[in-house]
Design brief:
The protein has 2 domains: about 60 residues, 2,3-Dihydroxybiphenyl 1,2-Dioxygenase, domain 1; about 80 residues, 2,3-Dihydroxybiphenyl 1,2-Dioxygenase, domain 1. Helix content is about 20%, strand content about 30%. It contains 3 helices and 9 strands; from the N terminus they run βαββββαββββα. The longest helix has 13 residues.
Length: about 160
């Protein structure tokens, strides 16, 4: 596969567009690039046409799928620096959104939460590649350890 291939965007079915915009725009920091009335919106980081689509076309007023079913595990949103991750983590905390977890993976520091429709969301930053943990053979040696959330929030 060509190394330039990327995941271009994620499009989520949501129950309430305004509630989802309050989360993705006001808490996580995305900007609306286009809106389709009260039914859909495209959001971006930094002016791209859209990284995230939200719509109620098939899901207005809907409920999250029950546990034990297939579907999205989480969408991971990569922030460019630890300081920017800390800033969004403080907005999450201020909004009273409960955290599902926080972890140091060696290659990254991550915080896990749910959006208003109970979709999993990971917010994280990557350490520089030269700091990534490696096994003796050079392969990645990722791990899951406790994240010092207080230290991150103090960033």
């Amino acid at each position: 596969m060509d190394s330039r291939v990327r995941i271009g965007h994620v499009h989520l079915k949501v129950a309430d567009l305004e509630r989802s915009l309050a989360f993705y725009r006001d808490v996580l920091g995305f900007e609306i690039t286009q809106r389709f009335g009260a039914q859909a919106a495209f959001l971006s980081a930094g002016g791209y046409h859209h990284h995230l689509g939200l719509n109620t076309w098939e899901s207005a007023g809907g409920q999250p799928p029950p546990p034990g079913t297939t579907g999205l595990y989480h969408v991971a949103i990569l922030y460019p620096t630890r300081a920017e991750l800390a800033a969004v983590a403080r907005r999450v905390q201020k909004a009273g959104i409960p955290l599902e977890g926080a972890a140091d993976h060696g290659v990254s520091e991550a915080i896990y939460l749910h959006d208003p429709d109970h979709n999993g969301v990971e917010i994280y930053w990557d350490r520089p590649q030269e700091q990534w943990p490696r096994a003796a053979d050079g392969s990645l040696a990722m791990f899951t350890r406790h994240l010092d959330l207080g230290g991150l929030l103090a960033e």
